[in-house]
C-alpha cells in the first residue's frame, strides 16, 4: 500500500528544501558577492562566461538561479542542464540537485542513480526521497528495512517532513523490520564519509541505467566488538506457551549478537540470570531474552536498558 499524505507529496516538499545557499567555494567570487547583496541579474551575468567555459561552480550557481528564478526567469529544464554539466565534472551539490529536480519532474528512472549516490553520502533530502521509493516499491524494488533506515537518517538530520513520514511508516512496517532499519541506519551513518570520498574520486555518476533493485540489506553489527566471543549458552527457539520476552537487536552475524549479550548481562544482574534466545529468520538473527511473567516486567526491563542507550522492545510470546 502506497503511503499518501506526506509520503505521496515528497516531490513538492523536496523542491522547497532544495533552495539552499550557494557554495562558499565558488570560483566566480564576483558573482557570489553580487548574489549575496541581492543583485541577482549581475550575479547571473558574472557567472555566464565562466559557466560556458566549463567552470563547475559557475554552472551550479546558474542552475540555482534558474531554479529559483532570481536574476532570470524560472526554467527548471535549463536549471537541470546546468546541474548536469556541473555534476559531470564532480560537483557534489550539483549531483544532489540533479536527483532532487529529476524526482520533482517525475523522471524517476533518471533520478534514482543520483538519489542513491547522494543518499550513500548521507544527503538527507535524497535519503527522504529514496526511502519513499523503497517503501512504495513502484519505481524500484520494495525494501522496507532500508526505507525505514533512510527515513530515520533523514529525520535525525532535522527534516520535519521525514519525521512525519517515519511516523506513517510505523503504521505499516512490522516492528521487527523497523528495528532492523534502526540498526542499519547506524551503519549507514558510519559508511557515509567513506562513500563520499569514494564517489568524489569516481565522478561522474553513471546515470545511464535505472537500477532495478537496491542490493539486499546486509545488517551491520550493533556493537563495536568484532572478536569472536567466548562460548555463550543460548536457548534454542521453541514454541512458547505464554509470557513476555524482550528483543535487543537484529544481526546478520550471530557472533555480534552474542557479544552484545555478554556486555548487557555483565551490566544487568537480572539479565545475567537468563540465557539469550537467538531467533533466526533467513540471514537475520534476533537477540531476545526472557521469559518475563508480565508485560509490565518486560517493559520495566526495557526502560532500564533504554536509559543506557540500548534498544529494547517487549514482545508477547503468545
Describe, in short, the structure shown.
With 318 residues, this protein is of the alpha+beta class.
Estimate the strand proportion: 5-15%
How many strand segments? 4
Give the C-alpha Rg.
24 Å
Q: Based on the structure, what is the oligomeric state of the protein chains?
A: single chain
Number of helices: 14
Distance between the termini: 28 Å
Shape: elongated
Q: In sequence order, what are the helices and strands, one letter per element?
A: HHHHHHHHHHHEHHEEHE
- What percent of the residues sit in helical stretches (DSSP H or I)? 55-70%
- Identify the strand order in the major beta sheet: 2-3-1-4
- Structural category is alpha+beta
Low-pLDDT windows of residues: 1-27, 215-241
What's the average pLDDT? 77
Biggest β-sheet strands, sense, barrel: 4 strands, antiparallel
What can you see in these coordinates?
Mean pLDDT is 77; it is low at 1-27 and 215-241. The two termini are 28 Å apart. Helix 1 (10-17) runs antiparallel to helix 8 and helix 3 packs across helix 4. The protein has a four-stranded antiparallel sheet with strand order 2-3-1-4. It is α+β, with helices and mostly antiparallel strands and 318 residues long. The protein contains 14 helices and four strands. Helices cover 55% and strands 8% of the residues. The protein has helices at residues 10-17, 29-36, 40-52, 56-68, 76-88, 92-104, 108-120, 124-136, 144-156, 160-169, 175-201, 254-267, 269-272, 295-307; strands at 244-251, 277-281, 284-292, 313-316.
